[in-house]
Amino acid sequence: MPPIIDIQGLQKTYASGFVALKHVDLQIRRGEMFALLGPNGAGKTTLISIVCGIVNASRGTVTVDGHDIRRDWRAARSAIGLVPQELCTDSFESVINTVAFSRGLFGKAPDPRLLEDLLKQLSLWDKRDARIMTLSGGMKRRVMIAKALSHEPHVLFLDEPTAGVDVELRRDMWQMVRGLQQRGVTIILTTHYIEEAEEMADRIGVIRQGEIILVEGKTQLMQRFSRKRLTLQLQRALPALPPELADWALQLADDGHALVHDFDAAQGASKVPELLRRLAGLGIDFKDLQTEQSSLEDIFVSLVHR
């Protein structure tokens, strides 16, 4: 099956000479949830803006659902819903009129039932007649999501969608997003809440200084880069590591009361029983043990600073 978004050789250089994107190749699979991660200024918003037709690329091609964003821009843009970082809407208009107008911009016939269901899913139905200026920041963010979904797009871009949104609403929003994905909508997400990407995404791409440095399935990424740490609380403190343990990646901590072993999560776990047997053979007893595994955030920080 061809990708729903196909980006080839995409470059963007602004008039100032700043190079925002350097030959980006990226394919987004139909129906997946893809998380695009990168530090501030890495090029995430520029990339999304080009795909959505807001910014012109300097070079390269982009197709959305088979439509070239330059030659067939109307069909390409109709396939996309965008929730931008910035809150941009008419402050004097009501919620329901704002969402209905956004649907009409794409030539869609009025559908009051669809808009009612959408606003109810976003906990906005009770505020349907309220002016945008009277809403809280979190509610305004929900209005932006409703606008993006009003014309029933096949692709939904969420650019920092939960910024300024409380924890309960964030949970409700992600439940709705999962429902959209189950109905076949492709989701592309950028977020500073790395735990959201870790929980939600099928694949993860990392962008740094305008270049895609990695695209991989979340499970494969965690297996490939994740590290584990085993900490043993010893019965008696060790003044130094015994020479018999020199071939193990071990460190003493807590003034010799703890033994720390860092290992690759995919390969090293099978060696832990061997280590414990080695310690028992040397008469080194422990009273407690704990393990920690690096999170997606740890991996992300490692990649962007490598």
Average pLDDT:
85
| Amino-to-carboxy terminus distance | 34 Å
CATH topology of the largest domain: the name is Rossmann fold
**Largest sheet at a glance?**
6 strands, mixed
> How many helices in DSSP terms?
10
How would you name the CATH homologous superfamily of the largest domain? P-loop containing nucleotide triphosphate hydrolases
**Which structural class should the secondary elements be placed in?**
alpha/beta
* Number of structurally distinct domains: 2
Radius of gyration (CA) equals 25 Å
Task: Explain what the structure shows.
- The protein has 306 residues and is of the alpha/beta class.
- The chain folds into 2 domains: 5-222, P-loop containing nucleotide triphosphate hydrolases (Rossmann fold, 3-Layer(aba) Sandwich), CATH 3.40.50.300; 228-293, Alpha-Beta Plaits (2-Layer Sandwich).
- It contains 10 helices and 14 strands.
- The strands form 3 sheets. It has a 6-stranded mixed β-sheet with strand order 6-7-8-3-9-10, with helices on both faces.
- A hairpin with a 4-residue loop joins strand 12 and strand 13 (258-264).
- The longest helix has 16 residues, at 167-182.
- The two termini are 34 Å apart.
Task: Give the structure's gist in a few sentences.
This protein is α/β, with parallel strands linked by helices and 306 residues long. Helix content is 32%, strand content 28%.
How are the secondary structure elements laid out?
Blueprint: E1 5-13, E2 19-28, E3 33-37, H1 44-51, E4 59-64, E5 67-68, H2 73-78, E6 80-83, H3 95-105, H4 112-121, H5 137-149, E7 155-159, H6 167-182, E8 186-190, H7 194-200, E9 203-208, E10 211-217, H8 218-225, E11 227-234, E12 250-253, E13 258-264, H9 272-281, E14 286-293, H10 296-304
